[in-house]
Amino acid sequence: MTDSRDLIQAIDQPPMPGPGEKRRGILRFSHPSLAGWEWPFVIARGLQDGPAIAMTSGVHAGEYPPMRANIRFMRDLDPKALRGSIVSIPLVDPPAFYARSAFVCPIDGKNPNRCFPGTPTGTFSDVLAYSIFSNIIDLSTHLIDLHCGDIFEHLAPFTICRGSGDAQVDEVALGMATSFGLPFVVATEPTGAPLSGTTSAAAAGAGIPAITTEAGGRGLLTEPETQMQLRGIRNVLRYLGALEGEPEPTENQRIFTSSNGFNSPEEGMWLPEVDLTDEIEAGQRIGRIENLFGDEIAEIQAPLSGMILYITSSPAVRKGGLLGSIGVA
Question: What whole-number distance in Å separates Cα of residue 13 and Cα of residue 87?
């Protein structure tokens, strides 16, 4: 059991422990919109200087293997073996976690991972993103944001890094993504378009190398995917020089330049006819939408050629709802 006397009580920022120490505590934010909510944290500092790493999970609070990996890694970490520091926030969106809400925060119905870097003048999710970004991510040198498929997402394990336009930042981010060691990597080029509101895109825009990892899904806490995330964390810290050793190699890793979602033209039941990692051609039939009489009301064709990266695993879909995504090299 946790002795409450061992927990640091912090406002806005976790305090840095002494060299070779690890502390855990409860973080509260001073913004009045977040009053009454608490964020557990663990912060570790090595004996030597090194990167200042932020590690987050639970931005989407139905994604359990990454949260579990974050918790387990920090419990097992010997701070004396660390160079630099690492601050861990295992659950970014507590209201969604306890409500078992997929994607969105139940307080305002927004997807927090479309709100970063946030604003102090918005609704709950905007202020949450602002507080996490300004007090945790923006003070770091690198970001590892751990994700997986949400409660109704089935996906192949992949890691995302988003181009910032800064060659040095993008080189490090790609190194982090490939070192994490999942079979697939989505490394997007900078487009000049506005940032998407994700943690890693906002970090890239601030000049911070960042990755978003994806392993697990469908609302399940699964050990193989938890182990994938744990292995990946260790690999990235080795790549950054925060831990001794070299990242474990990953055979036949495949890199895509984009992940392209496709949506339903009608509401009804989504019945996919392809599976994860299937290679598909543009125009190929990949599924159908049926109404609740069992009539086919829409044929779903692949909008482009590539590989199926993830599929919405729940049959229920609204018009315009996301059905899946295709990775394109």
Answer: 10
With beta carbons less than 8 A apart as the criterion, state whether 67 and 91 touch: yes
- Rounded average pLDDT over 207-220: 96
Pair 261, 304: CB distance under 8 Å: no
Instruction: List, in order of start, the domains of the chain with CATH numbers.
Output: 4-254 (3.40.630.10), 260-328 (2.40.50.100)
Round to whole Å and give the CA distance between 307 and 258: 11
Q: How far apart are CA 153 and CA 57, in angstroms?
A: 17
Instruction: Find tokens 């779903």 and name the residue.
Output: 300
One-letter amino acid of 215: A
| 1 pLDDT above the threshold of 50 | no
What is the DSSP-derived secondary structure letter of residue 58?
-
pLDDT digits (tens, 9 = 90+) for 100-117: 999 999 999 999 999 999
DSSP secondary structure, 116-185, as one string: TT--TTS-HHHHHHHHHHHHTGGG-SEEEEEE---TTEEE--EEEEE--S-HHHHHHHHHHHHHH--SEE
Measured distance CA(179)–CA(246) in Å, rounded: 9
Tell me if residue 21 falls in helix, strand or coil.
strand
Q: Which residues are CB-neighbours of 311 under 8 A, at least 6 positions away? A: 153, 154, 155, 272, 274, 275, 276, 323, 324
